[in-house]
Amino acid sequence: MKTRYVTRTLAVAAATLAVAALGVPAAEAATGTITGIGGKCVDVTDGNSANGTRVQLWSCNGGAAQQWTVADDGSIRALGKCLDVAGASTLNGAKVQVYDCNGSGAQRWTASAGRLVNAGSGKCLDATGVSSADGTPLQIWSCSTGANQQWTLPSTGTTPPGGPCPTGPFGNPLPSSNPTATKIKDGYNFLEGPVWDAASQTLLLTDMHDGSGPQNVQSSDILRFTPSTNTFATFIANAGSNGLALSRDGKSVIAATHDQRSVSAYDLVTRQRTTLAADYQGHLFNSPNDVTVGADGTVYFTDPDFQRADRPDQMSGHTDVFRVKDGVVSLIDDSIREPNGIELSPDGRTLYVGGNATGKIYRYPVDADGSTGPRSDFASLGGTDGGTVDCAGNVYQITFSDGKIHVFSPSGQALGTISAGRNATNAAFGGPDGRTLYITSGNPSAGGDTGNYGLYSIRLNVPGWPY
């Protein structure tokens, strides 16, 4: 399951979001919000353009005090003034303010690995106290990898149309051939479908419960994990979801909803549910499992029968891969036994599907209208579950039984594996620079919601594709 990087770019990277030190011409200067920890916006206090007005974090509201222009001379401007280090100080904790533009080093900034480095001091733009609270003042501080120094700039238009990936070339995505992810927190019954929301800098994921009721259907909730505070909270109770993705307009989370044997969209503001696909030619789906979204809004999903429970089969024994566009559901493939993870390549031209019960990962060419061509084998891998793709086009496919994430190059060459827990289910890229891989893994329930699933993470060398 993939993410809401839709309305903003990936966290700044030197190759794509730039100031003068990176050689971006004036024609590519961009204006918009700069977001940081907690998804908050860089804001000029009270919209006051007077010299010396403090710059702070504030909830994004689209106001003029939050509209920043990344100029070709290295300056970052709002309200006719420049982002400035008070007194041209080089000390940790020096105030960041707006001031008349003067071209000094105190007003020149370079985007580097998600940070904004001040030319005059060599220090990084920093949210004081690692806080995301409204009114948190900004300062300069020695550069680190902390979330309070990660910033997302307005798009310069140098990213691919419809997507947030920086320009390559890319190297090996793995820090070693067989790294191990670190557990963040466990204690959940059965986690699935993570997806990163870049606007709020949070991760959404599904927690599924054991079956109940006369048909033994599994209920589930959508949780929200906030890395800056290391906290989990229920975002949508009784969502009925499995795999998740985010719409290309960034307004809703798309969910494979096995509770109603459908595909749904939940509005991220109102949390209201809308049905996107209820059936195919009048027949109810089995139990939609995993989902991804194309640049034109086409939704692709898999329909194994894992969560159909005791409800009757209306698919004549088939487990299928479907797409839905403009409300019309089309069959892609009905010959894969238990299709599961589904991912799109960064250019949107290849669709990958894991055959859980076939021992294969498959690929389909995707046409301009979102339709797919003939299937071919991509790699051999048994017991596949969810997966994702990075910006280099490498494919990450999970095998449930051993807690492994298998990484393949776009040509199908095995690059290595990542270990996480015992029974891994899914993965998604996130974090301010898109290089954190989040993985759901753990021990399934033996009945009575006795499962123990956790969220894991690992830093990789290549940012991820969120869809």
From TrEMBL:
PROSITE patterns: RICIN_B_LECTIN. Keywords: Hydrolase, Metal-binding, Signal, Zinc. PANTHER family: LACTONASE DRP35, LIPOPROTEIN-RELATED. CDD domains: beta-trefoil_Ricin_laminarinase. It comes from Kutzneria kofuensis. GO terms for molecular function: gluconolactonase activity; metal ion binding. The active site is at D385. Residues 1-29 form the signal peptide. Gene3D superfamilies: 2.80.10.50, TolB, C-terminal domain. Binds 1 divalent metal cation per subunit. InterPro entries: 6-blade_b-propeller_TolB-like, Ricin_B-like_lectins, Ricin_B_lectin, SGL, SMP-30, SMP-30/CGR1_Lactonase. A divalent metal cation binds at E192, N340, D385. Residues 31-154 form the Ricin B lectin domain. This is Gluconolactonase. Substrate binds at N289. Its EC number is 3.1.1.17. It is an enzyme of class 3 (hydrolase). It holds the Pfam family Ricin_B_lectin. The keyword Zinc applies. Its cofactor is Zn(2+). Belongs to the SMP-30/CGR1 family.
